[in-house]
Amino acid sequence: MKGQGELTTARAGAASAAEEIVRVVDVKRTYVLGREQVTALRGINMSVRAGQMVGLMGRSGSGKTTLLNIIGGLDKPTDGTVYIKGQDLSRLSDSALTLLRRTTIGYVFQSFALIPVLSALENVELPMHIAGVGRAERHKRATELLQMVGLAKRMHHRPFELSGGEQQRVAIARALGNRPALLLADEPTGELDSTTGLQIMSLFRYIATTENVAVIVATHDPTITQIAHCTYEISDGLCHLLGESSAEPSPVG
Ligand code: ADP
Ligand code: MG
């Protein structure tokens, strides 16, 4: 990918190589709907390290979003434990959890969720602004990130002037602003054509490796098995390892 360069800025909350960022232990989640119970997750175990891209594959309704929300501290398991950088999420106060979400976890959604009146650069700067990063530093970081995702020439465009793939690149850059140790992406290629989707998947792998971020991508697209370092499949509320790939895929796009 053109314009991708390793970021030189120091990573304050950076993880050391191969540090375990996520540990999921026997996580269960049951939803109660009136008198009915829906068990989405029956006992999930997984571990994700810094620099690792993990795919989460499964059909619609298999529990991918439920698991990502629990890992990201947006939902709580009915049973079991999630550790982020060794911290048991269930033992954190609401404010500590909010802080952890803001400083340690980046989120990418299917629908991009960019602010239409802001330029790409301003969209990427926004979470840093909210976190109190000074103007010069956030401008520098946002510029570097947009270069890394291949959008150096589109920085001043608004979302409606960008293609779907370009909008998702902006959203990925935005998620990295505060240097998260963990990046969670829920169906990030769901609204993209297959070629663009493949480029975005490859970008996640590139980010995991070069930024030493733990990346979890949920998708129903089996191509993920060729791109992620390893892929888990969720079915019947359980997950099992589908396969691991060690070779770096050739850059796409
Ligand atoms: P996926 O993201 O893989 O499509 P989900 O995690 O969204 O799957 O859903 C898993 C299961 O849990 C489905 O059967 C779904 O209907 C159910 N479910 C998800 N969210 C809720 C909720 N808020 N209330 C009740 N059931 C839910
Ligand atoms: Mg989902």
Structural features, described:
- With 253 residues, the chain is α/β, with parallel strands linked by helices.
- The chain has a domain at 19-113 and 180-244: P-loop containing nucleotide triphosphate hydrolases (Rossmann fold, 3-Layer(aba) Sandwich), CATH 3.40.50.
- It is built from 7 helices and 10 strands.
- Strands 6-7-8-3-9-10 form a 6-stranded mixed beta sheet, sandwiched between helices. A 4-stranded antiparallel beta sheet has the order 2-1-4-5, with helices on one face.
- Strand 4 (79-84) and strand 5 form a beta hairpin.
- It is globular and about 50 Å long.
- The site of adenosine-5'-diphosphate (ADP) has 12 residues, from strand 1, strand 2 and helix 1.
CATH superfamily of the domain at 19-113 and 180-244: P-loop containing nucleotide triphosphate hydrolases
| Cofactors, ions, other ligands | adenosine-5'-diphosphate, magnesium ion
The largest sheet is: 6 strands, mixed
**Apparent shape:** globular
- Note poorly predicted spans: 1-13
Any idea of the CATH class of the domain at 19-113 and 180-244? Alpha Beta
Estimate percent helicity.
25-40%
The helix/strand order is EEEHEEHEHHHEHEHEE
Query: Architecture of the domain at 19-113 and 180-244, CATH level 2?
Result: 3-Layer(aba) Sandwich
- Give the spatial strand order of the biggest sheet: 6-7-8-3-9-10
CATH topology of the domain at 19-113 and 180-244: Rossmann fold
On the 0 to 100 scale, the average pLDDT is: 91
Structural class: alpha/beta
Radius of gyration: 18 Å
Q: How far apart are the first and last residues' alpha carbons, in Å? A: 5 Å
How large is the count of helical segments? 7
Strand content range: 25-35%
User: Tally of extended strands?
Assistant: 10
